[in-house]
Amino acid sequence: MVQKVYDVKGMTCAHCVQAVSSELNGLPGVKEVQVDLASGKVTVTSEQALNRAAVAAAVDEAGYDLVGGEAQ
Question: pTM here?
Answer without folding.
Answer: 0.90
